[in-house]
Sequence to fold (177 residues):
Amino acid sequence: MRTTGSREVYRNPWIRLREDVVERDDGSTGVYSVVEKPDFALVIAAERNGVWLVEQFRHPVARRAWEFPQGTWSSGSSGTPEELARAELAEETGLRAARIAHLGHLDLAPGLSTQEFDVWLATDLTPGPTAREATEADMVAAFVTEAELRAMIADGRFTDGPSLAAYALLLLSRESH
Fold:
């Protein structure tokens, strides 16, 4: 497949939507809508046989959602993926990690978006102040045991796709050690 044309449909400081005209291998043509967003970091903060979660209102699904701390640089900021992970963890939970390990790099939704994310395991945690953005004013952080997390997954209270994929990476990393 090759792209024969592209046009910007929409842009704001957080997202860009483009429409690509493509020619498939069989000669047929089509249109792909592509959402461009910056990559993000997701952090599993683990201690005492459990993990730290955050819960906030998610406008697109019109409900509160539990997830692992995650986010991207605000406009005008930048740094390494590890620096982003540490910044998001501190911003959303107030926790600082003495140790942080990279568990993997994943695609968010390759059928519609360019966005990817790195998954980090943060340990040796120290509490501190949060620095939440205005959009995170309603956010709460909570510690749950791993048994509680599994129950939340099983009964549909923990449904964030990137968080579930990150948890799978955590479980796989434990098997390899």
